[in-house]
Write a structure and sequence with these properties.
Blueprint lengths: L1 E4 L7 H9 L4 E4 L2 H10 L4 E5 L8 H9 L4 E5 L13 E3 L5 H20 L7 H14 L5 E4 L6 H12 L6 E5 L8 H6 L16 H4 L4 E5 L6 H13 L1 E3 L6 E3 L3 E6 L4
Parallel strand pairs: 1-2, 1-3, 3-4, 4-5, 6-11, 7-8, 8-11
Antiparallel strand pairs: 9-10
Helix pairs in contact: 1-4, 4-5, 5-6
């Protein structure tokens, strides 16, 4: 559903006909309150707002853009209107060609579909870029480093990459280095043999081994002690490691995804 808003009677009639020919259902509004109320009952896929006679962003524009991130917002401007890039996904300067509007809509709808596929909600070009990278690397086995501040959704991106890979859903194993005491990090990652240290009452599988056949997500990788970074390099290069106290290598084919909020 495409919502069209203008206070000029008949202005969008021709465009509405062109949208219908392209398979889009649309509805024309001439009152901003009715437009916003309609969103509460049925979320539109996109809307085109006539802003030709606006100089400052109207309140309804800000509300729609901020409260409904899944809705594509196109703004129609004129020579005397203000700048509305901050509150629109794209500015259009003419509706003479319905085919042009349809092309713009299809491009943005494809981006929204991609975001939804990976469980991402938003409208920024940066987020869309992340979704495209997930699509590109997901089906490969390359290792990935995700950077960003705490709380920015790095694990959500890692899970999306895992789903895109086609690996079993229950084979996504996550570990946060920053939450572990320094003395247990090696055992948690690589596992240990019985009797390898005081308290090692039995053999324990590490995360590298448990994630074999799937994905291992290692968060806060920047907190990994220097001596274990050498052992991690062996895993990256040889796809094998030694459990603590073991004399024999253990292989793993886990896909590794690292995350950090630090500048490595």
């Amino acid at each position: 559903m495409i919502y069209l808003f203008t206070r000029q009677s008949g202005y969008f009639d021709s465009l509405q006909t062109g949208l219908a020919a392209a398979g889009f259902e649309s509805r024309i509004f001439d009152d901003s309150q009715t437009l916003v109320s309609a969103l509460k009952g049925k979320i539109a896929d996109a809307m085109l707002l006539d802003l030709r006679f606006e100089y400052y962003p109207p309140r309804y524009l800000e509300k729609i853009f901020l409260d409904y991130p899944s809705v594509i917002v196109l703004g129609l401007t004129g020579p005397n209107s203000g700048s509305f890039e901050e509150y629109t996904d794209q500015i259009v300067e003419s509706i003479d060609s319905a085919d042009h509007i349809v092309s713009i809509l299809n491009e943005h709808l494809a981006d929204r579909k991609l975001l939804a596929e990976f469980g991402l909600v938003g409208r920024s070009t940066e987020l869309i870029g992340i979704a495209r990278m997930i699509e590109q690397v997901g089906s490969t086995d390359i290792n990935v480093l995700i950077t960003g501040p705490s709380g920015s959704g790095k694990e959500m991106v890692a899970r999306a990459i895992h789903r895109q890979s086609g690996k079993p859903e229950d084979k996504f194993i996550a570990i946060n280095i920053g939450s572990l005491a320094p003395g247990v990090i090696e055992s948690e990652l690589f596992g240990h043999e019985k009797g390898s240290f005081t308290g090692a009452l039995g053999k324990r599988l590490g995360h590298f081994e448990m994630a074999s056949g799937g994905t291992l997500f290692i968060d806060e990788i920047g907190e990994l002690p220097a001596d274990l970074q050498v052992k991690l390099l062996r895993v990256l290069e040889e796809k094998s490691f030694y459990r603590v106290g073991a004399q024999k290598k253990t292989a793993t084919d886990a896909r590794l995804i690292f995350a950090t909020n630090r500048n490595l």
